[in-house]
Amino acid sequence: MRNFDTDCVHPLNEELYNGAVTSGIQPAVAYEYIDRKTLQYPGFYSTYNQQRLGQIICNLEQGAWGMVFSSGMAAISTAILSFLNNEDHIIFSKDLYGGTLKFANDELPKRGIKCSFAGDVEAFKNLIHKNTRIIYIETPSNPLLNILPLEEIAAIAKANNILTIIDNTFASPINQLPLLHGFDISVHSGTKYLGGHNDLPYGALVSGSHENKDVIFNTAKMYGGSLTPYECYMAERSLKTLSLRVKKQNENALAIAEYLNGNTNIENVYYPGLFSHPQYSIAVKQMNGFGGMLSFELKTGFEGVTAFQQKLKLISPALSLGGVESLICSPAVTSHRYLTKEERYAIGIKDSLLRLSVGIEDTRDIIEDIQQAMQQAL
Ligand SMILES: *Cc1c(COP(=O)(O)O)cnc(C)c1O
Questions:
Q1: Which residue among 66, 177, 193, 221 is least enclosed by CB atoms within 10 Å?
Q2: Does residue 191 line the site of ligand 1, with CB under 6 A?
Q3: Residues 242-377, CATH architecture
């Protein structure tokens, strides 16, 4: 590990084919199983590019080993299913990515797995039973950017011999290294910051220990979800600018959060980098940057929210996040549309809430776009 900026550009610190300055694409899916020089059986199954990409992301997350998948959900479901059997119990953090929440509510119970949901450290502690195998969290969370204390949760889990998994998508390894705070496994939707261009779906898993490699690798093989060499190459290419992109997104998001915080059209701003954020001090302790995601409530009903998005010229009303383009969405009609209004309000997601994924455009242009849309719509 050198410094992040350098490691992103020169990830494996190796000599490449014929002095090339970038890696190649090796499409082979069949490899000789006898190493003719050493007469050893290397037993490789994954392709050259899959292995490279897994290793690169592992180095960025400072883990022991890593692997990649065809989507974030493939990485998440593989991580969870590798360790749970009939009658086992898993505790999730309350705020979850919609797909993970659906997986917990619809898929795991079919397999006889019990799921609970915790909103704070006390709740995690109180929900632990003899059959609890996994604690699974997201921090910062979607869409309200709640922060959970990594080290406290990891310590509680360790004391009870429970595996810890974090979805580190929102932070990216540039802003948060959960394995250094005691977490066992970090998963990513590479579709977001790691890919970074809103054009490449993939997923990644990094583990802090070699012990669980076989069980995860075997589950991954059974359920499919592998990434092609071409996509791996695209992902590797995107990672070269990861640090550059995320730092710019951090800067932009903080400036926008501060702008919105003082604006008369705004009810609330949710950004862990604001001093007024309820878990600001935890964020400062465990994050190296506050990220490019923020949410805010307009002082208007749902019609105003729609009109505001309609008037935006630079920022696109679109799902997904983490890319170079700024995107905005209304969780009430997108990620959380399956909940009733009462259920939504109970978890703090109002009709007036908007989630902004800040891109790498000039800060002034993003703010100007928000300003002109507010002037016209509100
Ligand atoms: C998008 C997302 C996922 C799912 O990733 P896919 O690549 O779309 O399968 C999981 N977790 C978080 C936090 C996400 O934002």
A1: 221
A2: yes
A3: Alpha-Beta Complex (3.90)
